[in-house]
Write a structure and sequence with these properties.
Elements lengths: L1 E5 L28 E5 L7 E4 L3 E12 L7 E11 L7 E4 L4 E2 L25 E11 L5 E13 L7 E14 L4 E2 L4 E3 L15 E9 L3 E9 L3 E3 L4 E3 L5 E7 L12 E5 L2 E13 L12 E8 L1
Parallel strand pairs: 1-20, 3-10
Antiparallel strand pairs: 1-12, 2-4, 4-8, 5-9, 6-7, 6-8, 9-10, 11-13, 13-19, 14-18, 14-20, 15-16, 16-17, 17-19
């Protein structure tokens, strides 16, 4: 028996009224122009990653203070998914502290400062920086985009001086990954000499092994080369008239349904597709002689 394997997006009215209140940082009119930066460039077509791969893309620049930052320049971050289905959970890695940068709006700050050092920056002084957009590429292929904005806020009571200065469209293209067969592409199973007396106890099994770089869903089908007797019970003819062959999924014990693919989850690493084959006599037949039964196994994944 021979089996071939194929792996396979208010209107404000002024009145004589006294209103008391306070201005929140979100509504504050920030003062920009405190920093001037030269930024890194990016490929126009974006970056390409295999599905499930780890992404780490640097973005950098050199900034010169136009006004003095008396206590330092705290970093601000905003990441917004723009297009593509099931986008990656993107973060920015701060290599100076080896932590993920907080997404903070202008006018607020945390422990991170531009260039890694929280110290005064005098007017005319330059600060260089490099950060990394990181995340895990989605499991499905396609083009996705996200807007990444880096900004600074003057710390220590000078938070009115805040601005976004590094904004870019992060484009990442995810390609489908390929699994590789670690077993032969053709398998020969030999039944030897069998008799009708013990035919019910006779079977042969095989295991098709493949390695995948990441987890993915797959549809698995088995197609016989000989004519089908019963597609729902996995029975097809052999080359010997009167003798049929049944295909069974070894792990579940269920017959293969020739007309319907089996959904499987392939793990990252080693996977196995296990099949068993049992000869069957046609009713009222007593054939004798050599026989063959040939199948093609297709594994379609994404």
């Amino acid at each position: 028996m021979i089996m071939k394997i194929k792996p396979g997006n208010c209107l404000l009215k002024l009145m004589t009224l006294v209103v008391l209140g306070w201005l929140s940082p979100q509504a504050q009119a920030f003062i920009s122009g405190s920093i001037k930066c030269s930024l890194s460039g990016y490929p126009s077509n974006g970056y390409e990653f295999a599905a499930g791969a780890e992404m780490k893309v640097p973005f950098s620049g050199t900034c010169t203070a136009v006004r003095t930052y008396p206590s330092g320049a705290g970093t601000n971050l905003e990441i917004t998914a723009i297009s593509g289905t099931s986008p990656a959970n993107l973060q920015v890695l701060d290599p100076y502290s080896n932590t993920y940068m907080l997404q903070l709006p202008l006018g607020s700050w945390g422990a991170a400062c531009l260039g890694g050092t929280c110290a005064p920056i005098l007017a005319g002084r330059s600060v260089s920086y490099v950060y990394y957009v990181v995340g895990t590429a989605p499991s499905t292929p396609g083009r996705r985009t996200a807007r990444v904005k880096l900004g600074v806020t003057s710390t220590g009571g000078w938070q009115a001086y805040a601005e976004w200065f590094h904004e870019w469209l992060f484009i990442y293209n995810v390609r489908a990954v390929s699994c590789s067969l670690s077993s032969p592409s053709a398998v020969n199973l030999k039944f030897g000499t069998i008799s009708s007396a013990n035919l019910s106890a006779v079977s042969q099994s095989t295991s098709v092994s493949l390695n995948c770089p990441s987890s993915m869903r797959a549809n698995v089908t088995l197609t016989p080369s000989q004519s089908v007797v019963n597609a729902n019970t996995g029975v097809s003819r052999t080359t010997l008239a009167g003798l049929n062959m049944q295909a069974i999924w070894t792990d579940s014990g269920n017959p293969v349904v020739f007309t319907s693919p089996r959904a499987m989850l392939l793990r990252a690493g080693s996977n196995s597709v296990n099949l068993s084959f049992k000869p069957q006599l046609e009713a009222g037949k007593s054939p004798a002689g050599a026989f063959q039964s040939q199948y093609t196994l297709n594994i379609n994944y994404q």
